[in-house]
Amino acid sequence: MRRLLALPAIALCWAVLGPTHVTDVPPPLAIHSGRYADGRALEVVGDLTRARTVVVLVPGVDTTAANFDTGLGGVQRRAPAWQARQLAAAIDRPDVVVVAWLGYDPPEGVRLAAVREDRAAAGALALRAFVARLPGDRIVLVGHSYGSTVIGRAAPRLDARVTDLVALGSPGMGVDRAADLHTTARVWAGTAATDWTRRLPGARLLGAGHGTHPADPSFGALALPVDGVDGHDGYFMPGTPTLTALAALSRGEA
After folding, report:
1. CB atoms within 10 A of CB 77
2. How far apart are the first and last CA of the chain?
């Protein structure tokens, strides 16, 4: 009887602390704006035929095709399509195109799937395939929240044109140091003082957690300014130093 009672506890520990498993990876998205029935979505801001630099935004937890344009809970600044348009306007260059990419299945809420990296591992495979098909000479990847975990998992085998990886409001990129990403790209990070991800433990235990917070100086990322950014979803608000810095970085001025 005791052995039987122990089984649920063992199963729970294995689910939380067991090895990462790559979930099913969907076929690559076509490189044009679209919203899809399977929950994926893409927004291209700019003319890809003129692109020399492509900036790809990777959103995080609870993002779906249904809220891709309106934002989680109807809060517009949470909407990846809106964020892409704000960044494109700040960049203001016809040869720099911004793409909001929801080509993976993010976790639903801050639950077990968000604590683990199974979804991030699958997303990383999809992201690598997508990036390899992009035009241009230079690619910048910007991950918000769990999207930065996806970028971290993708980092070691990304297209050589990827010059910069950016983690905003990140719970972790799956490693303890930027050097552990094994990438030649520069790594940038910023987390606002009022961002709730600061309260998450910056650690990994077997399959749980995402490692050191990228904004922690010990991680070794280049710092993005976040003064005045409000909460977890304010990084793309017009007038913020983070948006200004992202625009400069995207133009190749940083």
Report:
1. 16
2. 64
Give the separation between CA 44 and CA 135, rounded to whole angstroms: 13
Least Cα distance to 141 among 114, 170, 117, 119 occurs for 170
Is-contact 106 119, C-beta < 8 A? yes
The beta strand positions in the chain, using DSSP E, are 34-35, 41-45, 53-58, 96-102, 138-144, 162-168, 186-190, 204-205, 208-209, 222-223
pLDDT score recorded for residue 110: 60
**Per-residue confidence (pLDDT) for residue 205, from 0 to 100:** 59
Print burial letters for 103-140: b (CB count within 10 Å at least 16), e (below 16): bbbbbeebeebbbbbbbbbbbbbbbbbbbeebebebbb
Which of 64, 128, 127, 58 lies closest to 99 in space, CA to CA?
A: 58
Going by C-alpha positions, the residue among 51, 28, 43, 39 that lies closest to residue 125 is 28
Q: Which stretches in the chain have pLDDT values below 50? A: 1-16
Element (H, E) at 147: helix 146-154
| Measured CA angle at 66 (ends 77, 250), to 5 deg | 45
| Closest by Cα among 179, 221, 214, 189 to 200 | 214
pLDDT in tens, 195-249: 999 988 776 656 666 789 999 999 999 999 999 999 999 999 999 999 999 999 9
Residue 157 is predicted with a pLDDT of 94
- For 40, the token pair is 């994926």
Res 207: pLDDT: 62
- In a 3-state reduction of DSSP, which class is residue 249? helix
Secondary structure class of 43 (helix, strand, coil): strand
